[in-house]
């Protein structure tokens, strides 16, 4: 198999944390839109002139809020309708305070999809390598989203707590082996 680049792994990776960030931005944009509406009303009542600048910013921030809420909703829907499967781990890299797990997601049509997941803490890499070696496996649970579209994405389902693998998660992997 040809050597894959980091960009090829990232291209097919699903990152649900983006949804939370977009929700926060959507709330902020909505607040700014509300302030713009109030300012436009105040300018109109006090001066009698049309506040075109406020109108422009109200429309702009309303569009940004709508976009953010749309991204949040589609990400959450994709996460809820995803298919649980397994992925083969190719590489686990601890670097700059994060753990990067690269691997191949097994698709239902017997093809593979290169994916990558990132986790806080370098200790996760060492613990995960030890776990995979002790259990003589290279497979981890994964989530496949948008499987019926042209651009399926995936993520490794690894649970961490305070920069370490979650003990309950490891026990569930041993039971489900």
Query: Rounded to an integer, what's the Rg over CA atoms?
Result: 22 Å
Sheet having the most strands: 5 strands, antiparallel
Report the total helices: 5
N-to-C series of helices and strands: HHHEEEHEEEEH
What is the residue-mean pLDDT, rounded to a whole number? 86
| Straight-line N-to-C gap | 27 Å
Unreliable parts: none
Tally the beta strands.
7
Percent helix range: 40-55%
The SS-based structural class is: alpha+beta
Q: Describe the strand arrangement of the main beta sheet, using strand numbers.
A: 3-2-1-4-5
Global outline: elongated
| Percentage of residues in DSSP E strands | 25-35%
Can you give a write-up of this model?
By secondary structure, this protein is α+β, with helices and mostly antiparallel strands. The chain contains five helices and seven strands. The strands form two sheets. The chain has a five-stranded antiparallel sheet. A two-stranded antiparallel sheet has the order 6-7. A hairpin with a 5-residue loop joins β2 (98-106) and β3 (112-120). α2 (17-47) packs antiparallel against α3 (52-80). The chain is elongated and about 75 Å long. The two termini are 27 Å apart. The mean pLDDT is 86.
């Amino acid at each position: 198999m040809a050597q894959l680049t980091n960009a090829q792994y990232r291209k097919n990776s699903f990152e649900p944390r983006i949804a939370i960030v977009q929700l926060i931005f959507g709330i902020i944009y909505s607040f700014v839109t509300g302030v713009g509406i109030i300012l436009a009303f105040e300018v109109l009542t006090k001066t009698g002139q049309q506040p075109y600048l406020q109108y422009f910013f109200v429309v702009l921030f309303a569009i940004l809020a709508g976009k953010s809420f749309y991204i949040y909703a589609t990400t959450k829907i994709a996460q809820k309708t995803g298919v649980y499967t397994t992925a083969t781990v190719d590489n686990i890299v601890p670097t700059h305070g994060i753990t990067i797990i690269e691997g191949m997601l097994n698709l239902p049509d017997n093809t593979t999809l290169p994916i990558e997941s990132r986790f806080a803490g370098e200790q996760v890499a060492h613990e995960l390598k030890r776990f995979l070696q002790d259990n003589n496996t290279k497979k981890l649970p994964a989530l496949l989203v948008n499987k019926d579209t042209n651009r399926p994405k995936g993520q490794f389902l690894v649970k961490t707590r305070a920069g370490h693998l979650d003990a309950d998660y490891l026990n569930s992997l041993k039971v489900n082996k």
